[in-house]
Amino acid sequence: MNPAEEDIAHATDGEIGLVSPQDFRFPNPFEFESGQSIPEFTLRYESYGRLNAARDNVVLVAHALTGDHHCAGVHSLHDRKPGWWNSLIGPGKPIDTNRFFVLCANCIGGCQGSTGPKSINPATGQPYNLSFPFVTIRDMVRTQKILLDSLEISSLYAVIGGSMGGMQVLQWAIEYPEFVRRIIPMATTWRQNAMAIAFDEVGRQAIMQDPEWDQGNYEEDQGPNVGLAIARMMAHITYLSDQSMDRKFGRKRPEGKGKRYSFDIEFEVESYLRYQAQSFINRFDANTYLYFTRALGYFDLAAAYGSLDEAFKSIQCKALSIGFTSDWLFPPEQNREIVLAMLRQGVEASYTELGLDLGHDSFLIDSEELFSLVRNFLDN
Amino acid sequence: MNPAEEDIAHATDGEIGLVSPQDFRFPNPFEFESGQSIPEFTLRYESYGRLNAARDNVVLVAHALTGDHHCAGVHSLHDRKPGWWNSLIGPGKPIDTNRFFVLCANCIGGCQGSTGPKSINPATGQPYNLSFPFVTIRDMVRTQKILLDSLEISSLYAVIGGSMGGMQVLQWAIEYPEFVRRIIPMATTWRQNAMAIAFDEVGRQAIMQDPEWDQGNYEEDQGPNVGLAIARMMAHITYLSDQSMDRKFGRKRPEGKGKRYSFDIEFEVESYLRYQAQSFINRFDANTYLYFTRALGYFDLAAAYGSLDEAFKSIQCKALSIGFTSDWLFPPEQNREIVLAMLRQGVEASYTELGLDLGHDSFLIDSEELFSLVRNFLDN
User: Quick one: which of A51, A55, B57, B319 could link to B52 by a disulfide (CB 3.0–4.6 Å)?
Assistant: First the structure.
């Protein structure tokens, strides 16, 4: 077997296997949309598959609020879970790593290796904390472009992402029209409505009112864990749907723990939320949560460009927008509106709505329907 | 003008005017559904209109989670707001106090005058706090029955209420079938689903994780204000709809305060939530919030009686169930299911769904459509 055959043999097993994140360091100042600057930044990213000679077979994946660059493969053979979009990305999978060079970077302002509020400010030797610049979706995209430029990538075959990732996808198409050939924004919106802004505000208040937050100056291994847990529990409910929660938990009591008349856990869904919160505070930084939810709230393509039609005027790529019937955080009509405005601007865009009942998080689940949509749009 | 004429003259102006709450003290032990007891209790209530000679023209109003007995009229001529259902109750209004004797009591476990966690336990001279018995919807109804018995009321012309009030309405019809002639449950459910349980759990965690909660032993003028505010802000969103929030707030910035790039108030909806939270912590007790949300979670007519059909088997009254299209906390189908099960049991029941877009709180708004439904059902 020659090396090429070996590759194919490995590829057909359908899994990416072991991956290692890379750090890209940009040694120059970067000015954020707010006008604030930092003297340098790092983006941590992962890539799967191989860059072709033309350096144009790149699929960029944009992560959501609490996601990160680790979207496929495993970091160690002991990992219990692969990256968050592992079902979608891999050899022979809808985003086929036999064909595409897939890249995903932790967003600027993040807490998984990219420069963010807990990073050391070289000017002071101290963490930025709240002196970190406010981050916008456009800042996320512009820093990713700097990373792609450093890799001498000539164009993006596609950009794909859900929720906050979907916002980045839209921003990519607007900001770099000649660089992007296809976009797949999912479960997203062109501007957060009042309800989404409100939920994010409650989460931020839970964090900022926690005495351990200390104006953002907590030590890295400490912090407003209570507030962050409350924020996560609440937000997690908004990512689901009542149907899926009823199917999964209903009114079930934890086995052997069904003691009634207490303020301890009485229902399985309560236990699930606490577990989710605990695992979240172990992996996520509270200040990043503040910055990223603000980025979500600031995102408003109509306000930024005069109107949604104006925003999409320059777009040259093809677009497939996917909404989910049960998503009540960024409901289907907000995804549909994106495509309607694109069509008015002559963009080759289509809208699909999937009846998956998992709510906003539907874009993250294993669905053959979703997989074939992505596969066909990329094949086309 | 004789006194009767004077009454009528006053009545036709359509407003109840000044009212004073009454305290009913039950001097004997009361055993809760949990098996726990208290040696005596007080219910604070208000009444409007006059009890007829047969003592059977009574409309009982049941309040929701954060409501109370003050549902109509004003306590002082300086009051800026009348009781919470003042538009519905009064002379010539849908619940016509020229005809009905309308009564509403603060629920047992409450914090507006009825015995609850912050009341003094006569056995210890100290507040009950968490030694207060767990409260169920059935306990609320049974204590209200004791109050009505003390007033020698012979039957209820109708029981009406929304949300937690609607649960009490259903429980009344089941528990005292020969006593109740008409019920109007609105925006309610026969059992909370997993999502509603989950939101309540986040609210309780926000309160109980606040160090000021101190296992419920805070002083009356102190307490877990931060946690209670977070719980309220979150819950308040669940009482609205995205359409109504978009119409009222959208992405508006507070006038003259539109500073961008901060974690202070940036959007009007954020300011609104903080205002709501502040006014809530000024009037509501955190322990009562814990007890009442548990009462909501425990409510499950199917589990309590074997099935929903079994629960409704004994009902003798007429029922009008009202759901609201935009209510996603206790959505229309949960209200429809109530009527379907009643119809299967031969109950004279009908279901109406109103297209008001204010979400769960639609039952509290001024709507001629809602008013005429209530008026006609009571006239019938």
Answer: B57
Q: Residue B63 in contact with residue B165, Cβ under 8 Å?
A: yes
The C-alpha angle A312, A318, A321, rounded to 5 degrees, equals 80
Residues of chain B contacting A248 with CB distance shorter than 8 Å:
194
Distance CA A15, CA A98 (A): 11
Rounded distance between C-alpha atoms, residue B10 and residue B94, angstroms: 17
Q: Which of residues 101-120 of B touch A (CB under 8 A)?
A: none
B75 by Cβ neighbours in 10 Å (0-12 / 13-18 / 19+) ranks as middle
H or E element at residue A44? strand A41-48
Radius of gyration of chain B, Cα coordinates, nearest whole angstrom: 21
Domains of chain A: 3-192+301-379 (3.40.50.1820), 197-291 (1.10.1740.110)
Question: What backbone torsions phi and psi does residue A171 show, to the nearest 5 degrees?
Answer: -65, -40
- For residue B205, give the nearest of A193, A233, A290 by CB distance: A233
User: Chain B within 8 Å of A194 (Cβ-Cβ)?
Assistant: yes
d(CA B55, CA B71): 21
Instruction: Write out pLDDT tens, residues A309-321.
Output: 999 999 999 999 9
Q: What is the dihedral of CA B44, B49, B50, B52, to 10 degrees?
A: -110
Write the CB contacts of A256 (distance below 8 Å, at least 6 apart in sequence): none
Answer whether A170's CB lies under 8 Å from A182's CB: no
- Tell me how far apart the alpha carbons of residues B254 and B257 are, in angstroms, rounded to a whole number: 5
- Conformational region of residue B123, where left means phi above 0, alpha means psi within -120 to 50, and beta covers everything else: alpha
**Predicted model pTM:** 0.95
- Burial code (b: 16+ CB inside 10 Å, e: under 16) for B287-312 equals bbbbbbbbbbbbbbbbebeeebeebb
**Structure confidence by residue, pLDDT tens digits, B192-246:** 999 999 999 999 999 999 999 999 999 988 999 999 999 999 999 999 999 999 9
Identify the CA nearest to B369 among candidates B58, B87, B23, B34. B87
Q: Does B226 touch chain A (CB under 8 A)?
A: yes
Q: Give how far Cα B76 sits from Cα of A240, B17, B183, Å.
A: 46, 9, 31
